[in-house]
Amino acid sequence: MNNGEKRPEAAVCEKLEDFRLKLFLRFGEKRAKRIIYGVPIVIAVLIVLLVAFFLFPIRTIEVKGDVSVFNEGEIIEAAELEEGDSLYFRSSGNIKRTIKKNLPLAKNVKVTKSISGKVKIDIDFESVDFYTKIGDLYYAIDSDLRIMDVDEKKSKYSAHGAAFVTLPEVREPVLGEIIVFYDTVEETDTEGETLY
Length: 196
Prior knowledge:
Mean pLDDT: 83
Oligomer: single chain
Low-confidence stretches: none
Strand order of the largest sheet: 6-5-4-7
Strand content: 15-25%
């Protein structure tokens, strides 16, 4: 260090001072101070959020409300949640939308989360008034012929007072969609000729 070389600490200090001076010259004193103090704060907040995502897992999932048509396990599966998942990875609104998409019979869904790792799902379902058999499966339908649920057994619906409805031939039913009858859709072959 006798040859005119600076000590490493002094070189780092000089580079930091040069950087600070460039910030002040380019942005002015106020904006430079905002950058100097704001960047570490933003980084600290991001670190805290990342830690929160990994340190707060879901410990318990509680289901309240109407569990007569669907049991707790089916509701939790429809929510696409598992114990051990991050508590803050998905919002309550996202969980609610997922349940409504997977269980169209869900009428009212309320999801609350606590810091202790508990997720509470309070749910109510529409009444099942009608059901039908398409292929080997039974489908709960509403008065608009929208598919509300699918099951392998009719007892799930008949036990709750739903009436069996016989329908003409239908296309492939889709959960949450209205039933499409074969004779309501024009079908053509590869040459554009109407088949029926």
